[in-house]
Amino acid sequence: MLASLQNGICSARLDLATYQQNFADAHPPLNAIQAKIEAERCYYCFAAPCQTACPTGIDIPSFIARIAQDNPRGAAAKILEENILGGMCARVCPTEVLCEQACVRNTNEDKPVEIGLLQRFATDSFFSKPKPPLFKRTTDTGKKIAVVGSGPAGLSCAHRLACLGHQVTVFEAKPKLGGLNEYGLAAYKTPNKFAQQEIEWLLSIGGITVQTNTRLGKDVFFQDIVQNFDAVFLGLGLAGVNALGIHEPESVGLRNAVEFIADLRQAEDLSQLPVGRKVVVIGGGMTAIDAAVQSRKLGAEEVTIVYRRGQESMSASEYEQAWAKNNGVKIRHWAAPLELHTANGQLTGIRFAYTQLVDGRLTQLPESFQLEADMVLRAIGQTFDSSHSVEGLAMQGGKILTDAHGKTSLAKVWAGGDCRYGGKDLTVEGVQHGKLAAIDIDRVLRTA
């Protein structure tokens, strides 16, 4: 029976078997035979454009060659030495616009080498038998580094620093490590608690102490950390959520998409998650896509993404947009929210203005339309959380300003990931930020 009825919002819309099917691995991995066949399609290019296109600089031809040679452990080693979260990135990175788009097979064929699936095959093979370890700590340096935030950037930085012999303390505000890898990705992309399996392996290097449920600015303070550690890396992410820019009456059904996704990722029983009958998601990025598709998979009858500009301006890739449409999500462009409609404290609909570009500026037109909705999910971007109280840092565009190595305007402080100005907000880029910052921190501490 339907439970927790609030307007059209309820749980248990589907039977258990359907939930299991809907949230199973969306992109099943290659088996050993398929992986070898796919690996043999690679030209193993010298100065390979796919490697240049990879934000972490993985030697892609080399790891693929090892798969073709029936050496998946060797392939995993080539991946993980550059991208310590290579298993997760194989699942969630937009390879279709990174390494695979640069594949030379695209010149003469319609299909590039499936680099993402090959990377997953190699790393999954390794994680099934992770011993003996690939990495070992060098001699202890006696230096202490604080890593604030345990998303991809923080974890990458912590692991590299630990390998280099430093003692690392990771401060994380939430109960689990992982950041967006644990709380912010669609459940069908990372089933079977893979994020925590990867983190457990990463921590096995040793030299990393973890303090969860420790929020910067509340449980621990920035100036104290700077004073008590030899260096600090900030991987704070973007915890704030942009408002719609219109009056938002307190009502049942109006939520932040990131919170909706986090609840779903942490749920032990998907049948207990309430979802609307008619859901509207406002935004054009990956968060919007993940929230919309998962709403459908939870049993919502109608799900619509509304974006203020055209399709070509959406930050979600064409592949992800097609994925949403294939899962029954409608996408409407050139519309901006005007007014939320409620009745007795419950959301009933939302009115939009049509938009267009006028002299290069987005402009709302007089015409409008309305969509019925018992749930509206905000997915229009996230912001740096000012409650972190990181006084003295130079900021730009609402993010932390750094040099190419992640060094901030303050001595002893580096930053990376989504909170760093000038990035693309990609998991793989966060990993690279953390890695480069760790290398620079090590250099500075050894030459001080």
Describe this structure in words.
The protein has 448 residues and is α/β, with parallel strands linked by helices. It is built from 17 helices and 19 strands. The strands form 6 sheets. The chain has a 5-stranded parallel β-sheet with strand order 5-4-3-6-19, covered by helices on one side. A 5-stranded parallel β-sheet has the order 8-15-9-10-11. Strands 12-13-14 form a 3-stranded antiparallel β-sheet, with no helix packed on it. It is globular.
Short description:
The protein is α/β, with parallel strands linked by helices and 448 residues long. The chain has helices at 16-22, 32-39, 49-53, 60-68, 72-80, 86-92, 99-102, 105-108, 115-128, 152-163, 180-183, 194-203, 222-228, 257-266, 286-297, 318-326, 427-447; strands at 3-6, 9-11, 144-148, 167-171, 208-211, 231-234, 240-241, 254-256, 278-282, 302-306, 329-332, 335-343, 346-358, 361-372, 375-378, 382-383, 395-396, 399-400, 413-415. It is built from 17 helices and 19 strands.
| Regions with little confidence, pLDDT below 50 for 5+ residues | 1-5
Q: Report the CATH topology name of the largest domain.
A: FAD/NAD(P)-binding domain
In spatial order, strands of the major sheet run 5-4-3-6-19
- Rg, rounded, reads 23 Å
Computed structural class: alpha/beta
At CATH's second level, what is the architecture of the largest domain? Answer: 3-Layer(bba) Sandwich
What does the largest sheet look like? 5 strands, parallel
Say which CATH homologous superfamily of the largest domain is assigned. FAD/NAD(P)-binding domain
Query: What's the level 1 CATH class of the largest domain?
Result: Alpha Beta
Range of helix content: 25-40%
- Give the N-to-C terminal Cα separation: 66 Å
- Give the number of domains: 3
Number of helices: 17
Number of strands: 19
Provide mean pLDDT, rounded. Answer: 95
* Overall body shape: globular
Into which percentage range does the β-strand content fall? 15-25%
